[in-house]
Write a structure and sequence with these properties.
InterPro entries: Oxoglu/Fe-dep_dioxygenase_dom (IPR005123), P4HA-like (IPR045054), Pro_4_hyd_alph (IPR006620), Pro_4_hyd_alph_FE2OG_OXY (IPR044862). By secondary structure, the chain is an alpha+beta fold. Helices cover about 15% and strands about 30% of the residues. The structure holds 2-oxoglutaric acid and fe (ii) ion. The site of fe (ii) ion has 5 residues, from loops.
Amino acid sequence: MAPKDKGKKEAPRPAAPSQPAKQILNWPAFTPLRPQSDLALEEVLPNQILTIPNLWTSTLCRNYVSLLSSLSLTTTPGKPKRGEALRVNDRFQVDDPAFAERLWSQTALKELVTGAAEVGTLALTDAQRTELWGGEVVGLNPNIRIYRYTKGQFFDQHYDDSNNVTFPGAPPVRACTTWTLLLYLTSPATGCVGGETVFYPKPPKKKSKEPVPEPVIVGLDVGMALLHRHGADCMLHEGREVTEGEKWVIRSDLCVKR
Ligand SMILES: O=C(O)CCC(=O)C(=O)O
Ligand SMILES: [Fe+2]
Protein backbone atom coordinates (compact mmCIF):
# COMPACT_ATOMS: atom_id res chain seq x y z
CA MET A 1 0.00 0.00 0.00
CA ALA A 2 1.12 3.53 -0.68
CA PRO A 3 1.43 6.03 2.17
CA LYS A 4 -2.07 7.10 3.24
CA ASP A 5 -3.75 10.22 1.90
CA LYS A 6 -0.64 11.49 0.21
CA GLY A 7 -1.35 10.98 -3.44
CA LYS A 8 -2.76 8.86 -6.17
CA LYS A 9 -2.14 5.26 -6.95
CA GLU A 10 -1.29 3.73 -10.26
CA ALA A 11 -4.40 2.27 -11.85
CA PRO A 12 -4.90 -1.42 -11.09
CA ARG A 13 -4.41 -4.00 -13.79
CA PRO A 14 -7.43 -4.46 -16.03
CA ALA A 15 -9.66 -7.33 -14.92
CA ALA A 16 -9.49 -9.04 -18.31
CA PRO A 17 -6.56 -11.47 -18.40
CA SER A 18 -3.76 -10.66 -20.82
CA GLN A 19 -3.47 -12.91 -23.85
CA PRO A 20 -0.86 -15.66 -23.72
CA ALA A 21 2.46 -14.27 -24.92
CA LYS A 22 3.17 -17.00 -27.46
CA GLN A 23 0.23 -15.98 -29.59
CA ILE A 24 1.47 -12.46 -29.81
CA LEU A 25 5.17 -12.04 -29.46
CA ASN A 26 8.43 -13.68 -30.22
CA TRP A 27 10.72 -11.64 -28.04
CA PRO A 28 14.16 -11.36 -29.69
CA ALA A 29 17.16 -12.89 -27.90
CA PHE A 30 19.04 -10.58 -25.53
CA THR A 31 21.98 -9.93 -27.79
CA PRO A 32 24.31 -8.17 -27.96
CA LEU A 33 24.81 -7.52 -24.23
CA ARG A 34 27.77 -6.02 -22.45
CA PRO A 35 29.76 -8.37 -20.22
CA GLN A 36 28.46 -8.38 -16.69
CA SER A 37 31.85 -7.17 -15.42
CA ASP A 38 31.16 -3.80 -17.17
CA LEU A 39 27.88 -3.31 -15.29
CA ALA A 40 27.04 -2.10 -11.79
CA LEU A 41 24.15 -1.22 -9.52
CA GLU A 42 24.39 2.49 -8.80
CA GLU A 43 22.69 4.25 -5.90
CA VAL A 44 20.73 7.33 -6.94
CA LEU A 45 19.05 7.53 -3.52
CA PRO A 46 20.27 4.82 -1.14
CA ASN A 47 17.55 2.33 -0.19
CA GLN A 48 15.05 3.91 -2.58
CA ILE A 49 16.31 4.39 -6.14
CA LEU A 50 18.99 2.38 -7.94
CA THR A 51 20.05 2.18 -11.56
CA ILE A 52 22.00 -0.21 -13.77
CA PRO A 53 23.27 1.79 -16.77
CA ASN A 54 23.66 -0.20 -20.01
CA LEU A 55 21.81 -3.29 -18.77
CA TRP A 56 20.75 -3.53 -22.41
CA THR A 57 22.85 -2.28 -25.31
CA SER A 58 21.53 0.40 -27.64
CA THR A 59 21.37 -2.18 -30.47
CA LEU A 60 19.15 -4.46 -28.40
CA CYS A 61 16.94 -1.53 -27.38
CA ARG A 62 16.58 -0.46 -31.00
CA ASN A 63 15.58 -4.00 -32.05
CA TYR A 64 12.98 -4.15 -29.29
CA VAL A 65 11.53 -0.74 -30.13
CA SER A 66 11.13 -1.81 -33.74
CA LEU A 67 9.39 -5.05 -32.70
CA LEU A 68 7.21 -3.31 -30.11
CA SER A 69 6.25 -0.60 -32.61
CA SER A 70 4.40 -3.28 -34.56
CA LEU A 71 2.10 -4.10 -31.63
CA SER A 72 -1.26 -2.54 -31.24
CA LEU A 73 -1.02 -0.58 -28.02
CA THR A 74 -3.94 0.71 -25.99
CA THR A 75 -4.05 4.38 -25.10
CA THR A 76 -4.98 4.73 -21.43
CA PRO A 77 -8.10 6.76 -20.84
CA GLY A 78 -7.44 10.39 -20.04
CA LYS A 79 -9.96 10.32 -17.19
CA PRO A 80 -8.75 8.25 -14.25
CA LYS A 81 -11.11 6.91 -11.60
CA ARG A 82 -11.16 8.74 -8.29
CA GLY A 83 -7.87 8.15 -6.45
CA GLU A 84 -5.99 6.98 -9.53
CA ALA A 85 -3.17 8.88 -11.19
CA LEU A 86 -3.79 10.54 -14.52
CA ARG A 87 -1.76 8.62 -17.01
CA VAL A 88 -1.70 9.29 -20.69
CA ASN A 89 0.39 6.78 -22.57
CA ASP A 90 0.05 3.85 -24.92
CA ARG A 91 0.56 0.49 -23.30
CA PHE A 92 0.65 -3.21 -23.91
CA GLN A 93 0.44 -5.74 -21.12
CA VAL A 94 1.15 -9.44 -21.18
CA ASP A 95 1.55 -12.22 -18.63
CA ASP A 96 4.76 -13.87 -19.73
CA PRO A 97 6.61 -15.86 -17.05
CA ALA A 98 9.18 -17.09 -19.60
CA PHE A 99 10.10 -13.58 -20.71
CA ALA A 100 10.25 -12.36 -17.10
CA GLU A 101 12.58 -15.24 -16.26
CA ARG A 102 14.83 -14.43 -19.22
CA LEU A 103 14.98 -10.76 -18.35
CA TRP A 104 15.97 -11.77 -14.82
CA SER A 105 18.49 -14.55 -15.55
CA GLN A 106 19.85 -13.81 -19.01
CA THR A 107 20.89 -10.24 -18.20
CA ALA A 108 23.12 -9.05 -15.34
CA LEU A 109 20.04 -8.24 -13.24
CA LYS A 110 19.87 -11.43 -11.18
CA GLU A 111 23.57 -11.54 -10.34
CA LEU A 112 23.74 -7.85 -9.46
CA VAL A 113 20.58 -7.90 -7.34
CA THR A 114 21.37 -11.12 -5.49
CA GLY A 115 25.01 -10.16 -4.93
CA ALA A 116 26.33 -13.14 -6.92
CA ALA A 117 28.29 -10.95 -9.36
CA GLU A 118 31.98 -10.47 -8.62
CA VAL A 119 31.85 -6.75 -9.31
CA GLY A 120 29.14 -4.12 -9.47
CA THR A 121 27.00 -5.28 -6.56
CA LEU A 122 26.28 -3.21 -3.47
CA ALA A 123 28.60 -3.99 -0.56
CA LEU A 124 25.99 -5.59 1.70
CA THR A 125 25.75 -8.55 4.04
CA ASP A 126 23.11 -11.16 3.22
CA ALA A 127 20.88 -9.73 5.96
CA GLN A 128 21.25 -6.18 4.61
CA ARG A 129 20.45 -7.40 1.10
CA THR A 130 17.32 -9.17 2.31
CA GLU A 131 16.31 -6.00 4.13
CA LEU A 132 16.96 -3.86 1.04
CA TRP A 133 14.82 -5.95 -1.31
CA GLY A 134 12.18 -6.73 1.28
CA GLY A 135 12.84 -10.50 1.35
CA GLU A 136 14.38 -13.25 -0.73
CA VAL A 137 14.22 -12.15 -4.36
CA VAL A 138 12.86 -14.92 -6.60
CA GLY A 139 12.57 -13.15 -9.94
CA LEU A 140 10.59 -10.59 -11.92
CA ASN A 141 6.85 -10.11 -12.10
CA PRO A 142 5.55 -12.04 -15.14
CA ASN A 143 3.13 -9.16 -15.70
CA ILE A 144 5.18 -7.30 -18.31
CA ARG A 145 4.05 -3.84 -19.29
CA ILE A 146 5.26 -1.94 -22.31
CA TYR A 147 4.76 1.83 -22.34
CA ARG A 148 5.09 4.19 -25.24
CA TYR A 149 4.79 7.92 -24.54
CA THR A 150 4.56 10.19 -27.54
CA LYS A 151 4.71 13.98 -27.55
CA GLY A 152 2.43 15.40 -24.84
CA GLN A 153 2.06 12.09 -22.94
CA PHE A 154 3.02 11.59 -19.30
CA PHE A 155 2.28 9.64 -16.11
CA ASP A 156 1.12 11.94 -13.33
CA GLN A 157 2.32 11.76 -9.71
CA HIS A 158 1.44 8.51 -7.94
CA TYR A 159 2.66 5.66 -5.75
CA ASP A 160 3.21 2.09 -6.96
CA ASP A 161 1.50 -0.65 -4.96
CA SER A 162 2.85 -4.04 -4.00
CA ASN A 163 0.99 -6.99 -5.57
CA ASN A 164 0.85 -10.71 -4.91
CA VAL A 165 2.19 -12.90 -7.68
CA THR A 166 2.34 -16.67 -8.14
CA PHE A 167 5.16 -18.13 -10.24
CA PRO A 168 4.02 -21.19 -12.17
CA GLY A 169 5.89 -24.43 -11.39
CA ALA A 170 5.69 -27.53 -9.26
CA PRO A 171 5.13 -26.36 -6.66
CA PRO A 172 4.15 -22.80 -7.63
CA VAL A 173 6.07 -20.07 -5.79
CA ARG A 174 4.01 -17.49 -3.93
CA ALA A 175 5.65 -14.07 -4.06
CA CYS A 176 4.90 -10.37 -3.79
CA THR A 177 6.39 -7.37 -5.56
CA THR A 178 8.65 -4.99 -3.60
CA TRP A 179 10.49 -2.82 -6.14
CA THR A 180 9.44 -1.40 -9.53
CA LEU A 181 11.69 -2.13 -12.52
CA LEU A 182 11.74 0.28 -15.44
CA LEU A 183 13.95 -0.44 -18.44
CA TYR A 184 14.34 2.58 -20.69
CA LEU A 185 14.66 1.81 -24.40
CA THR A 186 14.95 5.40 -25.62
CA SER A 187 16.57 8.68 -24.53
CA PRO A 188 17.68 12.05 -25.92
CA ALA A 189 20.21 10.04 -27.96
CA THR A 190 17.28 8.54 -29.89
CA GLY A 191 15.41 11.84 -30.15
CA CYS A 192 13.25 11.59 -27.02
CA VAL A 193 13.10 14.83 -25.07
CA GLY A 194 11.50 15.03 -21.61
CA GLY A 195 9.96 11.90 -20.04
CA GLU A 196 12.26 11.88 -17.03
CA THR A 197 11.12 9.83 -14.04
CA VAL A 198 10.95 12.26 -11.12
CA PHE A 199 10.79 11.31 -7.43
CA TYR A 200 9.58 13.62 -4.68
CA PRO A 201 11.09 13.07 -1.22
CA LYS A 202 8.61 13.53 1.64
CA PRO A 203 8.27 17.24 2.47
CA PRO A 204 9.18 18.24 6.07
CA LYS A 205 6.35 18.61 8.61
CA LYS A 206 4.38 21.87 8.34
CA LYS A 207 5.99 23.60 11.32
CA SER A 208 9.49 22.45 10.47
CA LYS A 209 12.01 25.01 9.23
CA GLU A 210 13.67 22.42 7.04
CA PRO A 211 13.70 23.35 3.34
CA VAL A 212 11.52 21.32 0.98
CA PRO A 213 13.85 18.67 -0.49
CA GLU A 214 14.66 18.89 -4.17
CA PRO A 215 13.05 16.29 -6.42
CA VAL A 216 15.28 13.51 -7.67
CA ILE A 217 15.25 13.52 -11.46
CA VAL A 218 16.28 10.41 -13.35
CA GLY A 219 16.88 11.24 -17.01
CA LEU A 220 16.25 8.67 -19.73
CA ASP A 221 19.27 6.67 -20.79
CA VAL A 222 19.05 3.97 -23.47
CA GLY A 223 19.33 0.50 -21.92
CA MET A 224 19.39 1.74 -18.33
CA ALA A 225 17.34 -0.14 -15.73
CA LEU A 226 15.86 1.78 -12.82
CA LEU A 227 14.72 0.08 -9.64
CA HIS A 228 12.71 1.90 -7.00
CA ARG A 229 11.17 0.72 -3.79
CA HIS A 230 7.38 0.46 -3.87
CA GLY A 231 4.50 -0.46 -1.59
CA ALA A 232 4.41 1.16 1.86
CA ASP A 233 7.72 2.98 1.35
CA CYS A 234 7.19 4.07 -2.24
CA MET A 235 8.19 7.65 -3.03
CA LEU A 236 5.74 9.90 -4.84
CA HIS A 237 6.87 9.88 -8.48
CA GLU A 238 5.88 10.69 -12.03
CA GLY A 239 6.89 10.19 -15.64
CA ARG A 240 7.31 13.72 -16.97
CA GLU A 241 5.73 14.82 -20.20
CA VAL A 242 7.51 13.85 -23.38
CA THR A 243 8.01 16.95 -25.51
CA GLU A 244 9.73 15.43 -28.52
CA GLY A 245 10.13 11.93 -29.97
CA GLU A 246 9.00 8.71 -28.26
CA LYS A 247 9.74 7.27 -24.83
CA TRP A 248 9.63 3.47 -24.65
CA VAL A 249 9.83 1.59 -21.36
CA ILE A 250 9.55 -2.04 -20.28
CA ARG A 251 8.05 -2.31 -16.78
CA SER A 252 8.14 -5.22 -14.37
CA ASP A 253 8.80 -5.59 -10.62
CA LEU A 254 11.17 -7.43 -8.31
CA CYS A 255 9.39 -10.23 -6.50
CA VAL A 256 10.27 -11.73 -3.11
CA LYS A 257 9.01 -14.95 -1.51
CA ARG A 258 5.99 -14.53 0.72
O1 LIG B 1 7.41 6.01 -17.19
C1 LIG B 1 7.89 6.41 -16.14
O2 LIG B 1 8.90 7.13 -16.10
C2 LIG B 1 7.23 6.06 -14.83
C3 LIG B 1 6.37 4.84 -14.89
C4 LIG B 1 5.72 4.54 -13.59
O3 LIG B 1 5.76 5.30 -12.65
C5 LIG B 1 5.01 3.26 -13.39
O4 LIG B 1 5.02 2.39 -14.27
O5 LIG B 1 4.39 3.08 -12.31
FE1 LIG C 1 5.02 4.34 -10.87
